[in-house]
Amino acid sequence: MRISKALCELRVNALPVCRLECKKMNAMTSAFLLVHGAWHGAWCWSRVLPLIRAAGYAAHAVTLTGVGERAHLLSNAIHLSTHINDVLGLIEAEELTNIVLVGHSYGGRVITGVADALLNAGKVKLRHLVYLDAVVPKSGESWSSTHAPDVIAARVQAAKDFGVQHGVDAFPPPDASVFGLTGDNAAWVNRRQTPQPLGVYLDGQAFDEARLAKLPRTFIDCTTPALATIQVSRERVRADASWRVVEMATGHDPMVSHPQELTDIFLTCL
Fold this sequence. Notes:
Elements: H1 5-28, E1 31-35, H2 49-54, E2 58-62, H3 80-94, E3 99-104, H4 107-121, E4 126-132, H5 149-166, E5 170-171, H6 183-192, E6 196-197, H7 199-202, H8 209-212, E7 217-222, H9 231-238, E8 244-248, H10 254-257, H11 259-267
Parallel strand pairs: 1-2, 1-3, 3-4, 4-7, 7-8
Antiparallel strand pairs: 5-6
């Protein structure tokens, strides 16, 4: 069978267009999965989720056990593994794949554990890991490992004091001004924050660092004001050329203070 020269040229010339369309389709099938930090819940993403969806992408936010609207489940049985399983459960229930996985603050530990579990299973594609002003752990560390001794002592004592009154060891949230929020934004966050279970603060975490380092990773550094307890993570990512670092001149909760700018950064991770 002969194929005309014109048809051949059409097919050859169409290849770049086809590749571009395939790339677009691959991006459009991506799902953003947003994991909040300590004291927060899925509520903190309410200004970002519609912006991601308006751009044409699926977006989900999970509330971790014991906080947010799941605060009634607060107990001493909650550990880091509980929160990792919360996220894995959402991925399974929603049949997500090709995921841009975002972790804010403490959520950096959660997405690290989720990514390690997904890579072990080999069934779900991770497109990008985004650490939003987040804890970037090393294998074997706890969340408290990178904090100064006085910070650790204060949090543990606060959790124990809370436990005396409520029967559950959990440390109460700080005022939202710590996150650089003011006015209505600070009031909005303060109304919604709930105590954080102590177990997740003290739990160690083991994972394959070398395998995770092969994934595309972005660290979003919120610099104005910079939250002191994230400083170790800032230094780690800047010392490792495999990380992409993006700075935002805002405080620790940009999903509240600058949702559009944050969404724009998320979309560059596709």
